[in-house]
Amino acid sequence: MDLVPRPLALTLGDPAGIGPDITLLAFQARLGETVPAFVLLGDPEVLAERSRLLGLSLKIEPVGDAREAIAAFGRALPVLPIAVPERVVAGQADSRAAPAVLGSIEQAVALTQSGATAAVVTNPISKASLYRAGFTFPGHTEFLAHLAGREPSDAVMMLAAGPLKVVPVTIHLPLKDVFGALSGALIVKTICITAQGLRRYFGIERPRIAVSGLNPHAGEGGSMGSEEIEMIAPAIAAAKAQGLDVTGPYPADTLFHAEARKTYDVAIAMYHDQGLIPFKTLAFNEGVNVTLGLPFIRTSPDHGTAFDIAGTGRANPRSLIEALRLAEKMHRNAEAQS
Amino acid sequence: MDLVPRPLALTLGDPAGIGPDITLLAFQARLGETVPAFVLLGDPEVLAERSRLLGLSLKIEPVGDAREAIAAFGRALPVLPIAVPERVVAGQADSRAAPAVLGSIEQAVALTQSGATAAVVTNPISKASLYRAGFTFPGHTEFLAHLAGREPSDAVMMLAAGPLKVVPVTIHLPLKDVFGALSGALIVKTICITAQGLRRYFGIERPRIAVSGLNPHAGEGGSMGSEEIEMIAPAIAAAKAQGLDVTGPYPADTLFHAEARKTYDVAIAMYHDQGLIPFKTLAFNEGVNVTLGLPFIRTSPDHGTAFDIAGTGRANPRSLIEALRLAEKMHRNAEAQS
């Protein structure tokens, strides 16, 4: 068990997006509901200015050490300072913030790996802004895998909302590139990392894993595509041979109605929209993006920077609050096992 | 207005599937809820035997003319006889039934085009069984287009459940064949047929049409696929130039949550699972498959033959009942306009 309580490390995300807004609103929400203590890694001035812009009167407290955040959290939003050199204007993407954005992620990983913080929770970043500043990773997840010294395919993205958990095997690719990216080995690896993650962080000893097909009607016996027969069914067999409770391939369109969802703990989808469409249809505001397979816990709200509503007061902190709660729950589950 | 009431023409579907079961159960349900009068085109003996197997005591009444069904419907299930030459065993696919299965569809179309019946409602067929008997159409919809003397692309499949309506531009193809099948012209044609159908049969004068992208995040400005920029956005512009209320391309994963669904009357998806996943996630039992673009009304339950539960009493007639009701409503809307 965790004898010394540790805060969650929350990254800044893009300072011109809604990250500061939802961070402030999640902090404020701790008065009415349970929000685990976190420390923001970012510019205190950005938070203070956004707080004024939103008409909130929240106290921002710079701290020198992450652990101070636990004591501070009752009275003020604790921030480990990382300065953004230029003035941030809500809604206006600015690549000059990139070093602070990336520094925040790097520090969250370092603090969590050192044990000073319990988990990494990330605010949304703007890939376009980071690319302009020379960032070369496809996204957050791959960057986190790199920081952990792992392969990109070691990091598995899972969407979670209460009992609903969905893992797409391939993610941010043009749809036509899915066919080259998908392989039996990648499906097996994704299934295994998912099973380990559910066991370690969700306390599900023997997760029931349902795997979708790729084609309409899961190929209907080969008449509408052969990937199910040639790749997905053998991958399922290989994962079963490792002792896992894996079934499929199922037609994706009949895998997500209420009755079907009772039959599994996690659904494995073959590509982004196949998993994200049902997930966001069912859990639009409260979904959490979880990264499994890394040597630390990472969660994130499952929405983007939403530049268009940054600073307007219209941002909804629900997904971030759920991401904070889930990170803390995953941490407790892992501690209980170690 | 329809001065002489006409029944709906209900096809037999595969006699070894659940078509007979749900036909009997839909007929029985007329006592407790509104089920419009229909005439089944099929073998009375198949119905009578399935009725005994299910422990129902329903009267089957052969009729000589479709219009007799209106008067008969109160006392018995009216059937225009088309004999299946071999004995039908529930759950056992048998290609020898193919001529009766296809004859039933042909007669339903002929009766509806002649004005003897109000609309075509089809029970599920087994494509595999029909293929073995030499059937060469990809499915029901293409066969109906052929019977109407139309091009396959004239027949547009729409899934409907209450206010939720979804139209996939491409349907029963391996996912990797979507890229070759999709074109700007096909998207525009599908949008136009959908708009005409919603106006004529659903009484929506100026339908709000939301079009999804093809790639994750609708391509995110070209960084995850170019079809949105090169094909879908121009198709939307072309449809708008015809005076239609069309918007998009939208990321498919944020198009189907409750708030988003309030903003449109119909969503156009680019491929089968993109439209069918959210539809069946939200409306698993009560969905109706509607064919637009043909010179007659056609609806169908949106499930298959379910050979595994034929004759067991476990088949759910809900989707067929909704298909019958929607066909009758579409008929009334069209009559009101003519």
Task: Kindly describe this structure.
2 copies of one chain form a homodimer. Chain A has 338 residues and is an alpha/beta fold. In chain A, 38% of the residues lie in helices and 16% in strands. A 12-stranded mixed beta sheet of chain A has the order 3-4-2-1-5-12-11-6-7-10-8-9, with helices on both faces. The first copy, chain A, starts with 7 loop residues before the first strand and ends with a helix. The model of chain A has no long low-confidence stretch (mean pLDDT 95). At the A-B interface, helix 10 and helix 11 of A face helix 10 and helix 11 of B.
Characteristics of this structure?
homodimer, 338 residues, alpha/beta, 12 helices, globular
Which word captures the global form of chain A? globular
Span from first to last CA of chain A? Answer: 8 Å
* Structure annotation, total helices of chain A: 12
Structural class of chain A: alpha/beta
Order of helices and strands of chain A: EHEHEHEHEHHEEHHEHEHEHEEH
**Rg of Cα set of chain A:** 20 Å
Average pLDDT for all residues of chain A: 95
**Strand coverage percent of chain A:** 15-25%
Instruction: Classify the helix fraction of chain A into a percent range.
Output: 25-40%
Parts with pLDDT < 50 across at least 5 consecutive residues of chain A = none
The pair of chains with the biggest contact is: A-B, 41 and 41 residues
Number of strands of chain A: 12
